[in-house]
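haha ok so turns out i had the wrong file open the whole time. this is the CORRECT one, sorry everyone. sequence first:
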Amino acid sequence: MTGVPNSLMVRPVVGTAARRLVIGLLAAALVACSPRQAAQFAAPDPSASIERIYVATELDLDDLGRQFGQERPRGLKYLHVDVSIPPTHSPGKVEWPEGPPDAATDFVMTGSQVYRGADDMVGAMRHRTPGTETLVFVHGYNNTFSDAVYRFAQMRADFGTTGPGVVYAWPSAGDPRGYAYDRDSVLYSRDDFAQVLGALTRTGDDRVFLLAHSMGAQLVMETLRQAALRGDRALLNRINGVVLMSPDIDPDVFRMQAEAIGRLPKPFLIFVSQQDRALSLAGFLTGRKPRLGTIDSAEQLEGIEEVRVVDFTALGDGEGLNHATAVTSPAAIEVLKGMISQFESGAEEFEDYMVLDADM
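then structure:
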């Protein structure tokens, strides 16, 4: 080290917080080496309920597992999957099989169909599920096809959603080691996601409502920004609302994206939690700056019109590192269902920053 100034010498990190983050990284690496469950087909059970999940994806339909280290596939594919929700289902949970899949106790697939293109899928969806507004779910980092489809099925079942719904399954690595891979995959998928939104809003009064989780929020914001920069207000005006759940976005980047988009869709909601351990790790990986999904005041978004923040910190139960509390915590689900009913009735509007608790 001769000749190297002391100010440039690398010093060991010994802080307690840093040690915990390093342990978290090591734990993630160990998880990455363990087998990942995949959706499986099984015979239907008469007591189970069925959620038909429509999917748009770049993924190779012959290889829907981990993508880590693989070349990203090209070209969109469209399909639906029938997901069976067991009669023993508990709100907020995805009951993966612990042995041979059984529709009486587990989430299973009972059917599927691949469509020739977007128009065929949209036509089939409109025929089976009337409605002009499609709920589009964009999953987050470290998700496989199975993770995304089962999570959306769980949400639809727990919230009693009956309108049209589509999962956009972008090529996540499906592996905790793939954080950088996934950030690049978000950029890779912007044009395809815009194409999907265009197909869902092509005719008549068709509209979409966007629900994005974690790094999927980055994909949504980048796609909306891209639409604004090319002057595609027709698409932006067909978005009935946006929810960013635990968004893995740098707040400074979000501000620039919002400014580029201009008039944001309304409502525009951000679900946050200061106990989101996954975003704490993401902050460490990206320079120790808090992510958008952990902000704790409206002042942090001052000047961005129409954005409302809903704080789920008090309702976290530790499930999934508190990274999707709004849809994994039974208490949060009940509170959110009540809020949705109130707001749909026009009883009240969102505050700029709303802190939830179980007594609401």
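Strands lie at 49-57, 77-85, 108-115, 133-138, 165-169, 207-213, 239-245, 268-272, 307-311, 353-355.
again sry for the mixup
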